[in-house]
Amino acid sequence: MKHKFLLLLLTVTAMLLAFAQGQHEDIPYQAVTNICHTCVCLSTQDSNHRIHQTLNCDMKNFEHILPRWPTEFGTQSTGTEIVATYSGNRIRLLQQLPATNATLTLSCRHCGLQQLQAPLFMDVPNVEALYLSWNEIAEDALTPELFRGPFKTTKYEPIGLKDLDLSHNRIALLYRKLFEHTPQLIKLNLAYNLLSELDDATASALASVTTLQRLDLSHNGLASLPSELFTKLSSLRILDLSGNEFTVVPPSIQQLGKSLVQLNLAGNQFTDLNAQSFQKLEALRRLNISDLPALSTIHRGALALPALEQLECSRNPKLELLELNDLLVSRGLSQLDISHNALSTLTLNVSSSNSSAVAWPRLRSVSIAGNPWYCSCDLLQALELVEVQREQSGGAAEARCDTPYVLAGTPLSNLTSQKICSMVIPKKYRAVDEEPPRFLRRRYIVLTAIIASVVVVLGLLIGFVVVCVRRRLKGNDYGVQPIRYTSVRGSNLSAFSQLQPASVASKFNNAASAGTTGAANA
Questions:
Q1: Which of 238, 263, 413, 446 is the most exposed place for a label (fewest CB within 10 A)?
Q2: Which residues contact 363 (CB under 8 A, 6 or more apart)?
Q3: 79 pLDDT band (50/70/90 cuts)?
Q4: CATH topology for the 239-443 domain
């Protein structure tokens, strides 16, 4: 029995070795002869004696990858890093990678990839980065066997994959155990796919990557997130959910309160943000809430984030209210962008005991252009408390007053709170600014309607009178009679024209005979 088991084990091992060495010889590989004349091969060594080798085969019209590495790379793998790129070719099937123990980074973007041969990394256990974006990969090509490492004793070894980019593909779901052989994965990009709903299997696959530090689920059409998605992702630091269909901030994000430092929610469908939106995110340093077409209000307490350093809140066409006082708890704020919104004023209430203190001592960049600012005393005082250098270059990007009328178009950099607070704005300008244009006022609309009605009635009356007069004239035969035409041959004139020559001849003969008789008598 023992001998049979050993024989079976040897047979299986031999088959696996043959499988690994053959690398699916039934599928052709790209010819490797003189490959460094076709592709670019580079080899360098840094100060730490680490060898960096680059194989650049971009845009070579290849249909397959190489079966082995160029001979110019040598055989040394310890302390060696290989960067291989096949982007821009016509590779529909990514075959098993050639064997190496070196650290590998592989890029195959814009290749039209549809299938991935499993196990892809059996002979490449130290692969660190795999970039397969802008292809046609669907979920059936992503199986758990794909990421298996070398087989040792009784199981497959894990691989060292840390960065995986699968963006711009056709992935609609993930298998539950897809990442069971990638225990070191820290970056995962699934942007621009078809993950409009994270089912149980997909959520379990993502939740199993406990080492994940960066996750990109942007532009997938997501409207909600499973509550158990982030329960085990205690190391997640960067989360990108931009370009989706969220109407409220997913409550499950609060589970990342102690680890999440960067959150991107731009391009969603929020109508407002309240004190519960970012609750418990005590470690958040960078927040992006730009390009929100439906956002109108950011309520008090929504931006009370003590660790916040950068806030991007721009290009929200309906945003009219933002509580700047919430940001006073963010003493480390260094960048503030509230440009191109619908904001007209800002208020910043600093206690009298701290009136001389700077609201944000580390603030270096503020963008407020593109808003319809009402240049009031409160606005100028708030901007002076911020104490940042305003734009001095002028031009269209500079913040300007929209109202009141006497200050319209004036750059905010030319104004001070002392000047505005002591300024008396004439009432006539306010009246013109507050009332609608004349053609939209009620009395002018009513007058226009009356005039139009009178014109229509007069036109109808005049037309009615003209019709009646014409009928009356026609009935009394005073109208214009039609011209009658007759044939020239059948008329009296024709007969006269026929008799006229005979009568003329008769008269001529009579005259001649009279003349002859007179001469004889003489």
A1: 446
A2: 333, 334, 335, 336, 386, 387, 388
A3: confident
A4: 3.80.10
- As a dihedral over the C-alpha atoms of residue 342, residue 348, residue 349, residue 354, rounded to 10 degrees, the angle is 170
Please state, in angstroms and rounded to a whole number, the distance separating the CA atoms of residues 377 and 381.
Answer: 6
**Beta carbons of 44 and 80 less than 8 angstroms apart:** no
Confidence of residue 16 (pLDDT cuts 50, 70, 90): very low
Kindly report the backbone phi and psi dihedral angles of residue 316, in degrees, each rounded to the nearest multiple of 5, phi listed first.
-110, 95
Instruction: Tell me the mean pLDDT in the region 456-475.
Output: 84
- The pLDDT tens digits for 353-369 are 444 456 788 899 999 99
Beta strands in 103-254 (DSSP E): 103-107, 115-116, 127-131, 151-152, 155-156, 163-165, 187-189, 214-216, 238-240
Residues of the chain with CATH 3.80.10.10: 31-236, 239-443
Query: Looking at the DSSP assignment, which residues form a beta bridge with residue 321?
Result: 297
Is the separation of the CB atoms in 107 and 87 below 8 Å?
A: yes
In this predicted model, what pLDDT tens digit does every residue of 312-346 receive, in sequence order?
Answer: 999 999 999 998 899 999 999 999 999 999 999 98
Answer whether 0.90 is exceeded by the pTM.
no
Residue 286's H or E segment, with its range, is: strand 286-288
The pLDDT tens digits of the residues spanning 44-53 come to 988 888 899 9
The fold for domain 31-236 equals 3.80.10
Q: For 470, phi and psi rounded to 5 degrees?
A: -65, -40
